[in-house]
Design brief:
- By secondary structure, this protein is mainly β.
- The chain is about 10% helix and about 40% strand.
- It is built from 11 helices and 101 strands.
- Strand 70 and strand 71 (about 1030-1035) form a beta hairpin.
- Helix 3 (about 65-75) packs across helix 4.
Length: about 1500
């Protein structure tokens, strides 16, 4: 038995002890993690594995410490891991060694057994304790989770992940969710709920131990969708989404059975061989955009279901897949996609792929610049927002400041927060905080939050930063109140401080009150929670006082503070404060804590000092290496910002947008050949330091190195003793021009190389002599530059030295490209050295896509020149070319394949510009290169033949621009010009100079060389006030040295009396003013201008009618000036129309005083308005209400005082009258109501109410779109408030649609009414009713006249009451006295003559005859009842006063007449027909503004007499019964 076996055997616990432990465990709930071992088996068997959470309170009877008891329990309950194997026979040496080891181990075993016995006894005492069993049963049924009592919204601990599976295979989506209360999870497919009952067997939803899963069995292609799990509880909702893609293998539709897809043995990614090919380069992005970094790779073996393990890093920090970073690896590409860039994403990205031999990786920097600010000049967004010191209602948010280059300095920051799952952001601070951290308080316990920051300067507010990661507000002190005891991994015993404290009501006081953050604007107080604390929810109260005063004041009155952190903002500068804290729960408050040390707000530490010396050095053709010395005072440095500036420019640009931690940096994206300077700023939480000193200027060029190896060695000719070779330039020149080549050769059968040339070869062609015919040779070539000789090329293929005798030409060589654009390029080559049996007559060019062998001949006919423009290329595609020479014998050998060329223009590529120099007038062609270096040269060619020293052109180069100037351009200069910039990546361009373009430029050149002063306006005149005339001309531009002169009728005019001549350089105006313009000024005016070499002149002819017009205008202005010396009209009479259609004649006057009089006239008759005009108001108006044709005439306004008189005349006639009517019609038409139906006894009337109506308005009535003319059948009329159209005696033909159109000359206002259907039926019935009522009213019986109302008569006189009656048919007449009918007798005689005259005569009246008399006139259509009051008085009595306020009536004189003279009668008028109410129509009927006019009765109305006190005529008295 080995020593290890003996030790394991010694640790075995006897069976009785194990049984006792098992009995103890069996009485507990299933909360232990127990490994039970079957004693008869050698390998352990796991029976149950369950966690236990024990809470153990100290017991007074225990004499040992808790730690000792835990150790004893741990050792007592330990069981062996496995059974010792059976002893095997050993050799004698093995047995002896075993016995020696056994003796030593036996001694140790005795000690272990004694210790084990002691531990077993201690464990027995603990296990057998009833108190422990009771606590285990009551308090340890489950593991205590400190977050169980804290409400918390759902949160996915493990989110769904996407799956790609084969058809008919199952897939399982699962996730883990936490939250309190436990969330409910529902599954959705493409937004629709997943219901397993709808498709039995298709879906299975499970939820076990907090893991929720959706199983899709036998996936079909239709199961491809986005699946989501939505977790919900009362505090919120969380969603996790993933895409399932179900693929069908090619050819599956017929014979493939997916069930037979072989199962592949798992291959770990690290067993794959991976080689990276195309790698991502330095990348530039903008905030808010998306970007993708990708590397193509070759994987062996390439298995679709086993992609290589690829990891992405940013600044050496591993990235994980998320919404902000998508990662894929497979299909030969590893890709990182950043869908929504922020400056947080800037950094060095590294792709690391695990391979069979370890790892392969590639790194490149990605820059993220600020998005365009709104408003312009606002700062960039902050970045790297993180939350620290997280508590239940408090977090400390920190961030990094943005770089400010040309923007105004940042004055502060706003911090925003929003709850997870919400898009509602709340600003946390009212005023900007000046440092890059801020304490946020007032959070809700258990809620999760995101934070973001916005920067502020004097221009505006930046875009918000990227939101922080989600943080949950939890009390960090809760986890500190737990003690976890592990017993050899089998039990987790968690003891909470609440159990150790016992039953506590009022908590203890907090301790260690101090300031954890001290800033200029706030102080963060921190303290430790009380002990004992108690189990009731706890909060804190804070008090402050000035240090040493003892005047404590509570500061968080409105805040219930749960966490031991609190920011205090309202402290005064220069004062020291002390703070103390109380613990409070539902039972009461603790004693105050010990006061803190005196705390005072302090100024910020401030920004770091400026970095030291900045040194820039060459790196590549688009980058520069910048390094600097660290600041002397760091102050918690975050990093550095590097700025750059083009030499000679004013504005700086940021080189990085996220603080860089090291003091060296490679600035990318620079313009090749341009010179820059750099500066650096240090960054910390307080902002940016001062700028460092600028670096020395540096041109962007590659670092100097030896060139790379030439390649593509090819043989151009061989004569049997020599070979002519050519090769291609090195791909990298090493930052200096290649100026030499060295060739080595060797026999293909040997290994010894021999030098061919000791002197440098400057061209890429060389003839090697002294060769042996029939021998194979190999060659290698080295290139050299200023840095030295580079590495040699790879040996060429063996070449046989054999004379060429074929008749066809040899290969062309030195294929190159120019003017590479997205869809075209120009290929150039050199003629073959070996021409064959005859001269070369042309060339054929063939092209193929890279990697393809299908070459296409681009030109069907051979071209004689050695270049060809290729068009129709696909942008971004790569091509290869070869050229064949042609002679009379045929097509020769193809050239060596060209280098692959991509159809894509260089960034910033510009074309050749043709123009004319504005100063000299020279015609030129110019190109500005997008990149350049010190060794670059501009090589100009015409028709692709290099231009040497040519007298026809001159070539100049300045900086990045080269210009070819024509000395004397003509038709010989026409052609295609091109330029190539050497030592660049193919910067080139071309331009074809045509005859038309050349002629246009020659005309412009002549204009520049023979300049004139360009004029905006030629010589013109303008009449000014007072009658002055101004002659002026305006040039486009004048210099201060301009000279000019005015010539009038061939005589120069100078500035003096009557003439003023001047000019203004700023506006380019030259002018001459003539004070008195008379007939003598007729003639020709000319101005001549000289400005440097330029000159011009302009003339104006003022004769005949043109002059007369100018003269009249000048005289008018003179008179106007004189008129305006006294009171005058500033605006002559004009009219306006008010909303009520009143026409106002208005005028405005100026230069008036109180004594100035104002009068109105019409046709020389003065008009005195109701309101006297007020001239001091500056305006007067004359209202003309109810305007119509009668108001036509000439109106005049006269203004006068002692200084003069002015008159304004306004003729209202003709067109002016029409304009006024149209203005009225515009307002009236807009106010017109809908048509209203009105029935009358004569017919049916349609009425349109408006503000004002007059017959002069252009009003048209239409019936069924036909114009209606006024006639007996259709009458048209109106009043001041309405227009109407009446249909007399209507019939069915008048049914239909009616409209009225009111035209104001511009717009037609239309109102309509549909008189048909029920509307017509109701109207017609009402018309018949009114017609019958009118007929009855017309023919009823009535008293026409003759009767008085009151009669006073002396007794013994005779009274005669006579009246005229009318009716058709003749009415019946009855007389009544005191409502009793009067019978005819000798005393009272009643007569009715001719059916017209009715009389009542009373002979010799007596007082008994006094009373109320009445007459009743009636026929079948109705009648009338008229009353008369008769008073009889005795002789000698005073005549009684008339009743009812009537005038006195003298008594009748017997001598004069036997009958009494009644009061002068007042003839009652016949009652008019009552106005019928309008019928209800489908449209709303407005209330008319005036009563509807009633048609006159055909019966004439007699004159009225004195009104009677009897009731009105329309009130009928009751008719007394006849006797």
């Amino acid at each position: 038995m080995s020593e290890v076996s003996q030790q394991q055997e010694s640790h075995r616990i006897p069976h009785s002890c194990c049984q006792r432990l098992r009995n103890f465990v069996s009485k507990m709930p299933l909360v232990f993690n127990v490994s039970e071992i079957c004693p008869r088996k050698r390998k352990p068997r796991l029976v149950r594995s369950i966690k236990i959470c024990l809470t153990i309170s100290p017991r007074k009877s225990s004499s040992k410490s808790a730690s000792q008891e835990q150790a004893q329990a741990t050792e007592a309950m330990a069981e062996p891991a496995y059974t010792i194997p059976v002893f095997r026979d050993r050799t004698s040496e093995g047995t002896e060694e075993y016995q020696r080891v056994t003796t030593n181990v036996g001694k140790g075993l005795t000690v272990i057994q004694q210790e084990l016995h002691r531990m077993r006894m201690a464990t027995k005492a603990q296990v057998d304790s009833l108190a422990i069993q009771r606590e285990v049963k009551d308090m340890m049924t489950k593991r205590v989770d400190v977050l169980d009592d804290i409400p918390k919204m759902p949160d996915f601990l493990i989110a769904l992940r996407p799956h790609t599976v084969w058809e008919k295979t199952p897939v399982k989506l699962f996730c883990t969710v936490q939250g309190n209360p436990r969330p409910i999870v529902k599954w959705y497919k493409g937004g629709a709920p997943v219901d397993p009952l709808n498709t039995p067997g298709k879906y299975k939803i499970e939820s076990k131990y907090g893991v929720h899963s959706l199983i899709i069995s036998r996936c079909a292609v239709s199961d491809t969708a986005e699946y989501s799990a939505v977790a919900t509880n009362q505090h919120g909702t969380a969603t996790s989404k993933a895409t399932v893609i179900v693929k069908r293998p090619a050819g599956v539709g017929e014979s493939c059975h997916l069930g037979l897809v072989p199962h592949l043995t798992e291959i770990h990614p690290s067993k794959l061989e991976v080689a990276l090919l195309d790698r991502f380069s330095v990348t530039f992005g903008v905030e808010g955009s998306s970007i993708s970094l990708a590397c193509s790779m070759v994987v062996v073996p390439d298995l679709p279901n086993v992609p290589p393990l690829a990891q992405w890093y940013r600044d050496d920090k591993l990235l994980k897949p998320s919404k902000l970073a998508g990662m894929t690896a497979g299909g030969g590409v590893a890709r990182l996609t950043l869908p929504n860039l922020a400056k947080d994403d800037e950094g060095l990205y590294t792709l690391r792929i695990f391979t069979k031999d370890g790892t392969t990786e590639h790194s490149a920097y990605m820059f993220v610049s600020d998005a365009a600010a709104s408003p312009a000049g606002a700062p960039g967004a902050p970045m790297s927002v993180k939350a620290y010191d997280i508590n239940s209602d408090y977090v400390l948010v920190a961030w990094k400041p943005p770089n400010t280059v040309n923007e105004a300095a940042i004055t502060g920051y706003f911090v925003d927060r929003c709850e997870a799952g919400s898009d509602s952001w709340v600003q946390c601070n009212d005023s900007p905080v000046k440092i890059c951290k801020y304490p946020v308080h007032g959070l809700k316990v258990g809620h999760s939050y995101h934070f973001r920051v916005r920067a502020v300067n004097r221009v505006g507010i930046s875009r918000p930063s990227r939101k922080s990661d989600k943080v949950t507000a939890l009390d960090a002190a809760e986890s500190e109140r737990l003690q976890v005891i592990k017993i050899e991994g089998k039990y987790d015993i968690v003891i909470k401080d609440d159990d150790l404290e016992g039953y506590v009501t009022i908590p203890g006081e907090p301790i260690d009150v101090h300031a954890s953050e001290i800033c200029k604007s706030y102080v963060v107080l921190s303290w430790k929670p009380p002990s004992p604390r108690g189990r009731a929810p706890l909060w804190y109260v804070i008090e402050k006082c000035l240090a040493g005063t003892g005047a404590w004041q509570r500061i968080n009155t409105a805040v219930k503070l749960h966490s031991p952190r609190y920011p205090v903002f309202d402290l005064q500068d220069g004062q020291k404060y002390q703070f103390r804290v109380y613990s409070v729960n539902m039972y009461g408050s603790s004693e105050a804590s010990a006061p803190s040390e005196p705390i005072q707000k302090v100024d910020e530490d401030g920004v770091p000092s400026a970095p030291g010396q900045v040194v820039a050095s060459r790196n590549t053709k688009t980058s520069v290496f910048v390094q600097w010395d660290a600041p002397k005072v760091l102050k918690n440095l975050m990093g550095y910002y590097i700025d750059g500036r083009v030499v000679g420019a004013k504005d700086w640009f940021p080189c990085n947008n996220k603080p860089f931690k090291h003091n060296r940096f490679v600035v990318h994206g620079l313009i090749p050949g341009e010179s820059y300077v750099f500066r650096v700023q240090a960054v910390n939480v307080f902002g940016l330091s001062d700028e460092s000193q600028e670096s020395s200027p540096i041109a962007v060029e590659p670092a100097l190195a030896t060139p790379s190896a030439p390649f593509g060695i090819t043989m151009l000719s061989c004569d049997g003793s020599s070979m002519t070779l050519a090769w291609k330039s090195p791909k990298h020149c090493g930052g200096s021009k290649v100026n030499a080549y060295y060739i080595d050769k060797r026999n293909a059968d040997t290994l010894v190389w021999k030098e061919v040339n000791l002197a440098a070869v400057t061209e890429r062609i060389c003839t090697v002599d002294n060769l042996t015919e029939g021998t194979f040779y190999e060659f290698k070539i080295q290139a050299a530059n200023m840095a030295g000789v580079g590495v040699p090329s790879a040996p060429s293929d063996p070449m046989k030295c054999e004379a060429w005798t074929f008749n066809e030409p040899g290969p062309a060589y030195d294929l190159s490209f120019s003017e590479i654009r997205s869809h075209s390029l120009v290929i150039l080559w050199k003629a073959p050295v070996y021409t064959g049996a005859s001269a070369v007559t042309g060339y054929l060019v063939e092209m193929a896509k890279k990697g393809s062998s299908d070459f296409v001949t681009l030109n069907q006919e051979a071209v004689s020149h050695r270049y060809l423009q290729v068009t129709g290329l696909e942008e971004g595609e790569t091509y290869v070319f070869k050229v064949r020479a042609v002679n009379a014998s045929g097509v020769g050998k193809p050239s060596q394949l060209s280098e692959p060329v991509c159809a894509k223009a260089l960034p910033g590529t510009k074309e050749i510009v043709a123009g004319v120099d504005e100063e000299t007038g020279d015609v030129f062609l110019s190109l500005e290169a997008c990149e350049i270096c010190d060794t670059s040269k501009f090589v100009w060619s015409k028709n692709y033949k290099q231009i040497g020293d040519c007298p026809r052109v001159a070539i100049t180069t300045k900086g990045r621009t080269s210009r070819l100037t024509f000395t004397n351009p003509d038709k010989d200069d026409l052609g295609r010009y091109s330029v190539v910039v050497t030592d660049t990546d193919g910067v080139s361009g071309s331009h074809t100079l045509t005859e038309d373009a050349l002629n246009t430029m020659l005309e412009l050149s002549y204009a520049i060389r023979h300049p004139i002063v360009p004029l905006k306006h030629g010589l013109n005149y303008e009449v000014l006030e007072k009658g002055h005339v101004r002659f002026w001309v305006q040039a486009v531009k004048l210099s201060s040295s301009v000279s000019y002169r005015f010539i009038v009728n061939d005589k120069e005019v100078t500035s003096g009396e009557g003439h003023k001549i001047s000019h203004d350089v700023a506006t380019g105006i030259i002018q001459m003013t003539v004070d008195t313009f008379t007939r003598a000024n007729e003639g020709t005016y000319t101005v001549q201008i000289n400005d440097g070499r330029a000159k011009t002149q302009s003339s104006l002819v003022l004769v005949g009618d043109v002059f007369k017009v100018a003269l009249r205008e000048a005289e008018f202005q003179r008179k106007e000036h004189i008129r305006k010396q006294g009171p005058h009209f500033s605006e002559y009479l004009y009219f306006t129309v008010t909303e009520d259609c009143t026409v106002m004649l208005a005028c405005k006057m100026a230069n008036v005083k109180k004594e100035t009089s104002f009068r109105w006239y019409k046709e020389d008759d003065e008009i005195v308005p109701e309101t006297p005009p007020n001239v001091m108001s500056g305006a007067c108006a004359l209202p003309i209400p109810m305007f119509s044709r009668k108001d036509q005439g000439v109106f005049k306004a006269v203004l006068s005082d002692d200084r003069g008189k002015d008159t304004s005349v306004f003729d209202i006639s003709g067109q002016v009258f029409e304009d006024i009517i149209n203005a009225i019609a515009q307002i009236a038409g807009a106010s017109a109501s809908d048509l209203v139906l009105q029935c009358t006894p004569e017919g049916i009337r349609l009425q349109c109410y408006m503000n004002y109506y007059t017959e002069e308005m252009k009003t048209v009535w239409k019936h069924k779109e036909s114009k209606i003319a006024s006639s007996e059948k259709m009458r048209i009329g109106g009043t001041a408030e309405m227009a109407w159209m009446q249909i007399c005696d209507p019939s069915d033909r008048e049914k239909g649609h009616y409209s009225i159109e009111i035209s104001d000359g511009v717009k037609t206002h239309t109102r309509t009414f549909d008189l048909s259907g029920q509307a017509y039926t109701d109207a017609y019935e009402e018309y018949l009713r009114l017609k019958a009522a009118a007929f009855a009213e017309k023919n009823r019986g009535r008293v026409v006249g003759g009767l008085p109302d009151v009669v006073t008569i002396m007794e013994e006189k005779s009274l005669s009451l006579t009246c005229t009656v009318w009716g058709e048919p003749t009415p019946e007449v009855s007389w009544f006295k005191n409502e009793q009918e009067v019978a005819s007798n000798e005393h009272t005689k009643v007569t009715f003559d001719g059916g017209k005259f009715a009389s009542l005569v009373i002979n010799k009246v007596t007082p008994d005859d006094s009373g109320k008399y009445s007459i009743n006139v009636r026929n079948k259509y109705g009648g009338e009842f008229v009353e008369i009051t008769v008073s009889v008085y005795k002789h000698g009595e005073k005549i009684p006063e008339p009743k009812l306020g009537q005038p006195k009536t003298p008594a009748a004189t017997p001598a004069a007449t036997p009958a009494a003279t009644p009061v002068p009668p007042r003839s009652p008028a016949p009652s008019k027909a009552p106005t019928p109410a309008p019928l209800k129509t489908p449209a709303s009927t407005p209330v008319p503004k005036s009563p509807t006019p009633t048609p006159k009765s055909p019966t004439p109305t007699p004159s009225r007499g004195v009104k009677s006190p009897t009731p009105p005529r329309f009130m009928k008295s009751p008719t007394p019964p006849r006797k």
